[in-house]
């Protein structure tokens, strides 16, 4: 069932182009400029009148929620708060009737996310689910929802669930942005056309696999690793660090690049690999100056850059290219090399990639 792949995780990484296509197929009709999703269409007024969106989730799904925060605020101009379900449920949070709560969960069984949903419902909020497992508890408990059509995800480390969650959330943001007039018609159409190109751009990103193996060889014995990104790629940095931690047991932290000087830069020395997402458009110049700060302290830079980049290439110890796309869609591409990097390190260290120690695929206890 691993279809010739050594691990489910690798299979699932390679399934992302088709998983994303399956997720938007029938929902996004780019040539006609239509996004239709029953769960959103049937509740459109609730979304359009929402004073705020609260995302509740855990782990990787929480990272997808953070990406959604950027895209919803950017394109649909709706304020978004992203909450760890475990904190939200016990905090006596302020929940209003005109809040829309989006619960994100691959398995649809996560106990904390479920409890957060129940609390939101008790307080009169409309709760929308983004789940992968059809018929799961969360998909049944929510008022409406949209499934990611990623197919079964077996590897404990979430990969295709993450990129398909971002796909769904981007479609919702685009749909609302169009309905509210907060994005122009031209931009809306351009986004839809660009979204259709994402699967082939992911294929392209996967072609860096051999190069990533070489980079992984250099850093497999690292004790720590930092991941930096800004804007849309800040959550990708968090996700990259989580992937490395959970399957290779190397300590890793993700930060918004500009936070370095508020503390973490003290960690930098020649032993410290720093993965920097430095794609064009996303505050590129600022990220470049963050890279310089790390270089001058002898940190090792692994940079994820836009194809054809030259300035970062001159500074970084390694560069991994991804295709150019709209800034809001870059997480769908920049995530790919980070998944492969952590995968190969874990394999080289002989770890149990698909079933890392101490972890379960769905966390049904709090
Ligand atoms: O099934 P869920 O999306 O609700 O799961 C949430 C987290 O437990 C999950 O994303 C976890 O962090 C993964 N192991 C990350 O790879």
Automatic annotation (TrEMBL):
Homodimer. It is an enzyme of class 2 (transferase). This is Glutamine--fructose-6-phosphate aminotransferase [isomerizing]. Signal peptide: none annotated. The chain holds residues 250 to 615 of 615 of the full protein. Catalyzes the first step in hexosamine metabolism, converting fructose-6P into glucosamine-6P using glutamine as a nitrogen source. It is found in: Cytoplasm. Its EC number is 2.6.1.16. The active site is at 361 (for fru-6p isomerization activity).
